[in-house]
Write a structure and sequence with these properties.
Length: 250
């Protein structure tokens, strides 16, 4: 990847974390304004920004054309969490994929969070967007922590495919999916992305995937076991997961 493209993608990621609702046109304008401070002749068009946002698996959090690649509509499922009282671990898990910049290049972080406790039950760092990666992360979570009642995802192609739905059905997990263009339906994992990037990733531009994987492992261990979480009354996710006591409402 050339240095300019890497710089653009890193800025898009940071800007998206600050403004989840900023779409392609707004992002184009922000990129141009930012990079023209270094190069007055810099110009990026809407088409290139859209392509990069799709490559980065970035979703805009309002009803709009999808920026991630949609899968097969026959595998799209309704959103089941609205108004649901979430009062125990393993009742609802939430999963998503996020772009993780390195010093030269990027990887994709797949993660599954227990909504009740905000405990990360499984994660994986990969170089591709593929349903097999999502399934591997799911199987790892089920082996270690058992099966959730419901698992919520977006409508990206990694989740709206036969392989993903079959994997959930095999474990008798009920499928829930965000409404089209509504990443706030999956706000718990979105907040985790913001936390890990703002507290760790942006301050540690590792030079390769091995070091990044070690760093992500360290941070998630810290997040699960030591970091108080505002969304669960400043309790520790692992303690909430093992010793439930605070009801949540989706």
């Amino acid at each position: 990847m050339d240095p300019e493209t890497h710089k653009i993608m890193k800025f898009i990621d940071e800007e998206h974390m600050r403004f989840l609702g900023k779409g392609v046109v707004g992002m184009r304008d922000s990129v141009n304004e930012h990079l023209r401070k270094e190069n007055p002749n810099f110009r990026i068009g809407e088409r290139r920004v859209r392509k990069l946002m799709r490559q980065m698996n970035i979703h805009v959090s309002y009803p709009a054309p999808r920026l991630s690649t949609l899968g097969q509509t026959s595998y799209v499922h309704p959103y089941l969490l609205k108004g649901l009282a979430i009062n125990r671990p393993n009742q609802v898990w939430s999963t998503d994929i996020s772009y993780i910049p390195m010093e030269k290049g990027f990887l994709y972080l797949y993660a599954i969070i227990d909504v009740y406790s905000r405990f990360i039950v499984s994660w994986g760092l990969y170089s591709t967007l593929d349903s097999s990666n999502a399934i591997e992360v799911l199987e790892r979570a089920v082996r270690q922590y058992g099966e959730p009642e419901i698992l919520n995802s977006d409508q990206g192609s990694q989740y709206t495919c036969k392989e993903w739905i079959d994997a959930l059905n095999k474990h008798n997990i009920t499928v829930s999916m965000d409404g089209k263009g509504r990443c706030k339906d999956n706000i718990w994992i979105e907040r985790f992305w913001r936390t890990i990037k703002n507290e760790y990733v942006y301050f540690h531009p590792f030079e390769n995937g091995l070091k990044m994987r070690e760093g992500i492992r360290w941070y998630i261990t810290y997040y699960n076991n030591r970091r108080p979480h505002q969304g669960i009354e400043h309790k520790i996710p692992k303690k909430m997961y093992l010793c439930p006591g605070i009801p949540q409402v989706a």
